[in-house]
């Protein structure tokens, strides 16, 4: 429980003790994304795969989630594979970009 609460704090969830006891349908989309990131952190991974981590989120929440991902990668020395259809977002957030089509790398 304490480790889970620490991970909720790491992803900037306010009042993690209250949020810990909530059901998935009781949290917002942005809080749900942050909770999923916190769950991933429990295992202490060296690599994070973020598949459409900002889809269906409004712009301000997208920026919050991106900031959290960026901070975690920097602080923990983690690698990040960021999967998105939003090319503007990818070009502004990622160091290297691979474009795939029909399961093949095309660019």
Written description of the protein model:
There is one protein chain. With 107 residues, this protein is of the alpha+beta class. It has a single domain, classed as P-loop containing nucleotide triphosphate hydrolases (Rossmann fold). The chain has helices at residues 2-10, 16-20, 29-41, 59-76, 87-93, and strands at 47-51, 79-83, 100-101, 104-105. A two-stranded parallel sheet has the order 1-2. Strands 3-4 form a two-stranded antiparallel sheet. Strand 3 (100-101) and strand 4 (104-105) form a beta hairpin. Helix 3 (29-41) runs parallel beside helix 4. 14% of the residues are buried. The model has no long low-confidence stretch (mean pLDDT 91).
Count of strand segments: 4
CATH architecture verdict: 3-Layer(aba) Sandwich
Which spans of ≥5 residues are poorly predicted at pLDDT below 50?
none
Largest sheet: 2 strands, parallel
Q: Helix content range of the residues, please? A: 40-55%
Alpha carbon gyration radius = 15 Å
Examine the coordinates and then state which fold CATH places here, giving the name of the CATH topology.
Rossmann fold
**Name of the top-level CATH class:** Alpha Beta
End-to-end Cα distance: 44 Å
Mean pLDDT: 91
Task: Determine the number of helices (DSSP H or I, runs of at least 4 residues).
Answer: 5
